[in-house]
Design brief:
The chain is built from ten helices and 14 strands. The protein is α/β, with parallel strands linked by helices. The strands form two sheets. The chain has an eight-stranded mixed β-sheet, with helices on one face. Strands 3-2-1-4-5-6 form a six-stranded parallel β-sheet, sandwiched between helices.
Length: 335
C-alpha cells in the first residue's frame, strides 16, 4: 500500500511491540505515535525498540487525539481504563482496536457499541485467535468429530508479576482496581472460540480461588449446552501444557495453546493421529493487523469476524462468572 494509515498505540507493555511489528508488516499501517503515562518512558520505549525519531510521543490522550494525522488507535492499557480511552477515541472519530477484554463489564461495552454506532466509527475487539489460520482449520474440520459430546479448554501460566504480589507489592495483574485477574486475562481466551462456534450457553457454572486482593488466582468454568458441555480451567498462579479438545463420537480435535491455536490435530477413535495444522506466522498478531487493514480499506465499520455481538456475548458471560465467584471491580459500581 502507498497510502498507509497512521497508527497510534496506547501503552508500552510487552504486547505493543508485537502489534506494531504486525501492523507494519501487514502493509496497511505505519507507526505514528505512542501514548505513555510518562513522556520519558514513552521516549525510552520508542528508542529501545528502534522506532523512528519522527514517531511522536504523547503523555496526554486529548493531545494525541487532537493530532489530525492519527488514523487508527490501538489500546493496550490496563483493562479498567479501556472504556474511557475508547470512548475518547470514538468521540474523536478515530478507528479503535481494544485489547481483550474490551471493557470491565457488559454495561461499559454496551455504551461503547452504542457510541460507535452513533458516531459511525469502526470499533473492534483485539482478540487474535479467531483470525489465526488454525482457527479456520478447526472450523473446517469440526464435522469430522461427529456428534459433539464434551470440550475442554485450559489456559494456565504463572504470571511474571506473581512473585511481586507475594512479596507484598500491588501489581496491576492482581489488582481489582485495574479490572484484572485470571478469568479476565486468560480465561477470556477460552471463551471466545467456543462462543463463536456454539453461541451462548444455556447455563454457566463458575468456581474460583481468590487472592486476598480480591482477584481470582485460578478458576474453573462449565458452559452447558443442550447435548454437551465445555469445561474451562484457567490460572495465573500455576502452569499447564495448555492443550484443549473438542470430543465427538467419531473423534477428537486437539489444539495447542488456545490463545493462538498453535497446533491442531485430529485423533480418530482408533487412536490414529492426523496433523491438520496450518502454517502460522511466529507473530500471531499479524492476522489481526491484516484483518483490521482489510476492514478499513473496504470501508467497513464493523469486523465480520471479531464482531461486537460476539464481544458482547463473551462480556455477559464474564460478568456472570465474576458474579458467581465474587470478583468485584470498582468499575462495576459506576453507572
Amino acid at each position: 500500500m502507498t497510502n498507509k494509515l497512521n497508527l497510534a498505540v496506547v501503552g508500552t507493555n510487552f504486547i505493543v511491540p508485537k502489534f506494531i511489528d504486525a501492523a507494519v508488516r501487514s502493509g496497511y499501517f505505519r507507526l505514528h505515535a505512542i501514548l505513555s503515562r510518562n513522556a520519558l518512558s514513552g521516549i525510552n520505549f520508542r528508542d529501545a525498540n528502534g522506532y523512528a525519531i519522527s514517531v511522536v510521543v504523547f503523555e496526554n490522550m486529548d493531545d494525541m487525539l487532537s493530532d489530525d494525522k492519527v488514523d487508527v488507535v490501538y489500546i493496550a492499557s490496563p483493562n479498567a481504563i479501556h472504556f474511557s480511552q475508547a470512548t475518547a477515541c470514538i468521540n474523536a472519530g478515530k478507528t479503535v482496536v481494544v485489547e481483550k477484554p474490551m471493557t470491565s463489564n457488559a454495561r461499559e461495552l454496551h455504551s461503547l457499541m452504542a457510541l460507535a454506532n452513533d458516531k459511525n466509527v469502526f470499533l473492534m475487539d483485539g482478540m487474535k485467535s479467531l483470525l489465526c489460520p488454525n482457527f479456520t482449520q478447526l472450523v473446517e474440520n469440526l464435522p469430522r468429530v461427529g456428534r459433539i459430546r464434551q470440550c475442554t479448554a485450559t489456559f494456565s501460566k504463572v504470571s511474571s508479576r506473581y512473585q511481586d504480589y507475594l512479596r507484598g507489592d500491588n501489581p496491576n495483574t492482581f489488582n481489582t482496581a485495574f479490572s484484572n485477574g485470571s478469568v479476565m486475562d486468560l480465561g477470556v481466551y477460552c471463551l471466545y472460540p467456543f462462543v463463536q462456534l456454539f453461541d451462548s450457553p444455556q447455563q454457566i457454572h463458575a468456581y474460583a480461588d481468590l487472592l486476598e486482593s480480591g482477584v481470582d488466582a485460578a478458576g474453573t468454568v462449565i458452559l452447558k449446552y443442550p447435548d454437551f458441555h465445555v469445561s474451562i480451567m484457567h490460572s495465573k498462579v500455576s502452569a499447564s501444557g495448555n492443550s484443549s479438545e473438542i470430543q465427538g463420537e467419531q473423534g477428537t480435535l486437539v489444539f495447542d495453546n488456545i490463545s493462538t491455536i498453535a497446533g491442531l490435530k485430529f485423533v480418530d477413535n482408533s487412536g490414529s493421529v492426523t496433523d491438520i495444522s496450518a502454517q502460522q506466522d511466529d507473530n500471531d498478531l499479524l492476522y489481526l493487523a491484516q484483518h483490521l487493514g482489510r476492514c478499513i480499506s473496504s470501508g467497513l465499520k464493523k469486523s465480520p469476524i471479531n464482531t461486537l455481538e460476539l464481544s458482547e456475548k463473551v462480556m455477559v458471560i464474564l460478568d456472570e462468572i465474576r458474579e458467581q465467584t465474587g470478583v468485584r471491580f470498582p468499575a462495576d459500581r459506576h453507572g
